[in-house]
Design brief:
Number of domains: 2
Shape: elongated
Number of helices: 2
Number of strands: 0
Structural class: mainly alpha
Largest sheet: none
Order of helices and strands: HH
Length: 69
């Protein structure tokens, strides 16, 4: 039983490692946790942050209107 659990854990770990690398288009033995240079990530994060800020403002105003009315 111990050997089967150990084999399952080892196979799952190796499968996830290889699967992540394959899905990202990297070589199979590369480190899937290595930092990758993501072009345009700063712009994307700023846009998402601004949209979330607007959502929070609108939600706050909506709650205030419901509490007053």
């Amino acid at each position: 039983m111990k050997v089967m659990v150990f084999g399952l854990m080892l196979g799952l770990s190796a499968g996830m490692w290889l699967g992540v690398n394959h899905s990202q288009g990297d070589v199979l033995y590369a480190n899937p946790l290595a930092d990758k240079n993501l072009p345009g990530i700063e712009k994307s994060l700023k846009t998402t942050g601004m949209q979330f800020g607007q959502f929070l403002e609108q939600s706050g105003k909506s709650i205030q209107n419901k509490m007053q009315g």
